[in-house]
Amino acid sequence: MNEQTQFEGSAQYIATDSLKLAVKAARHLQKPLLIKGEPGTGKTLLAEQVAASLGLPLLTWHIKSTTKAQQGLYEYDAVSRLRDSQLGDDRVYEIKNYIKPGKLWQAFSSPERCVLLIDEIDKADIEFPNDLLHELDKMSFFVYETGETITAQQRPIVIITSNNEKELPDAFLRRCFFHYIEFPDEATMRQIIEVHFPNISGQLVNQALEIFFKLRQMPGLKKPPSTSELIDWLSLLMADDMPDDILAQHDPSKAIPPLYGALLKNEQDVQLLERLAFMSRR
User: Residue 37: enclosing H or E segment and its boundaries?
Assistant: First the structure.
């Protein structure tokens, strides 16, 4: 692969100029690209599209609240080794049989450059990012059980996503290039819709976007609908068993849109819209 190849978005992913520049800058600095933004704005999909457009393999490490940094390096299965020793298994004499490489090890040992996605890093314990400082900075780590050092053969492109559930440590932030994905404006949203539904009716798009952006601007809404929820909603509106004019028939005085369950995800927001609709009828 030509190392000068740049990410320009793809037919499946609309990337703004600022996002393209962020990917380019992170690659130039050889730093992890930390991506923040509202849920549903395409943070995870970005890594997939960067890998696809650059022709690189993708490794994904999904972070949970119980995930520990060590798991990204490797895990040593001492219990299995003890059991095998009790059974007289010859495998016990080779400790490597009980070491499972994690995603960072896999990325570092890959013979070709890859994209490593560390997805939703803010879900883990607050110390999790700090525990990876050396490994992400130096692209190497030490395996105590075998005495070997694993060093990246090809420095991976590291993309880290966060939903801002908790603040990340300053020391970690200093080692990243940061980019916040702004929520798409109407023009960009139309491009995104065109990617997913190339044959969609222009009238349906106009009606749907009017309702969608009105919902997002509603004061007091606990969870405004996201891009992914708009796509789900449009998919429902275009289903064969739905009337073609389902939105045209919608009474504008009613705050709750048809098939609202694709857009609204909690009862507080539904109740808020119901109250607003009731007040507007009085």
Answer: strand 33-37
pLDDT at 1: 41
SS3 of residue 128 by DSSP: helix
pLDDT in tens, 145-164: 999 999 998 999 999 999 98
Query: What token pair was written down for 47?
Result: 């890594």
Model's pTM, two decimal places? 0.85
Give pLDDT < 70 ranges for the chain.
1-4, 244, 248-255, 277-282
Tell how strand 58-62 and strand 115-119 pair up.
Answer: parallel
User: What pLDDT shows up at residue 220?
Assistant: 87
> From CA 236, how far away is CA 184, in angstroms rounded?
21
Task: Decide: 19 and 7 in contact? Cβ < 8 Å.
Answer: no
User: Hey, what's the torsion of the CAs at 145, 146, 147, 150, to 10 degrees?
Assistant: -110
Q: Give the pLDDT confidence score for residue 29 in this predicted structure.
A: 94
* CA separation for the pair 72, 214 (Å, rounded): 42
Pick the closest to residue 50 from 77, 88, 12 (CA basis). Answer: 12
HSE toward the beta carbon, residue 134, CA cutoff 13 A: 10
Burial class (CB within 10 angstroms; exposed 0-12, middle 13-18, buried 19+) of 267: exposed
CA separation for the pair 234, 267 (Å, rounded): 21
Residue 219 DSSP SS3: coil
